[in-house]
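thread from #wetlab-drylab

HS: before we spend reagent money on co-crystallization trials with zinc ion, can we at least see a predicted complex? here's what I'd submit
DV: go for it
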Amino acid sequence: MKLRYNERIYPTPSQQRNLARFFGCARVVYNDGLRARRGAFHSSEPYISDVTLQKMVITAGKKTPQRQWLKEASSVCLVQSLQDLHAAYRNFLASKRGVRHGPKIAPPRMKKKTGRQTLRFTRNGFTLRENGRLFIAKLGDVEVRWSRPLPSDPSSVTIIKDPAGRYFASFVVETDDRPLPELDLDQTETGIDLGLSSYAVLRGRKIASPKFFRRQEKKLRRAQRKLSRAQKGSNNRRKAKLAVAKVHARIADRRRDFIEQETTRIVRESQAVYLEDLNVKGMAKGTRAKSLHDHSLGMFARTLEAKCARYGRGFAKVDRYFPSTQMCSACGSVQGPKGLAGLSTRRWVCCCGSVHDRDENAELNIRREGRRLLAAGHAER
Ligand SMILES: [Zn+2]
């Protein structure tokens, strides 16, 4: 399945001038190729092959005084422009021979300068930088405003300038996944309250904390104690070290399985997912050291976000200062259990008379806030 991710980009003024030149070069190459093929057709010469045409129009073209400015553009986008011409010809010829189903296809036409201009780059024409910028040959690093992470490496990117003068990068990401059927948003969207008494509280169900981690945590502590007591350089120390590594590996495997399983189920069941933006570091600063549980919550959140992006599910993060636990979902007053006291209060009664299950009330608040955020995000784009 091919997915498109459109992100706004912000080329600098000099990059914008270069892009204008690139758009022009790609258009000229396309039109030169088309003119050559038409000429051959009218003088009853054989059809010019794709390879020959590329040599004529790009390689030889750059050497002529009329076209030497083609050198200024990234050759990847020039080649791509010709590829688009080849594809247009293939479709036209197949249609003419009757091989292709569907309506008749007209021969390719000259490209004119229009309000919406595009440039396509295949994999060797661009690089995604660690810092999130998009590198394009002969253009440099372009600033991207990412609205969501890409689920995997993009196979191509199209740079678009729209009639309003805005620039976009449209990434094509190919996945083996089949699209999931779209669900009714109202019926299936869910908030997720993470990590108090249960592992996670969802709409209408809870995911229990796996006992496995607590058991392994004990084993790990025992193994680490043994290691710290073993003498340096001794055989026992080597064994103890290996034992610690084994427990770590077992935990990592099980954690991955657990998270894969649970996040897959959530994405299948829900059209949109709203998650509390948890401050794992802040949680750990409290009374206890950062536990295996905390580590796993961070990974759970990241995996879930990536899966939502991959399967086209809505996703929003609710600010961690949003009073999801303390707010009454019936009247909106913020008088519920606070702080550590909240951890031990399972049920509470609001001044309006509503009786709340702490977790279910929090999920509902997160769900409403998440939905508001998601709607606002869409309006902005
Ligand atoms: Zn109330």
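DV: Residues 235-269 form the longest helix (35 residues).
HS: ok that's useful, forwarding to the group
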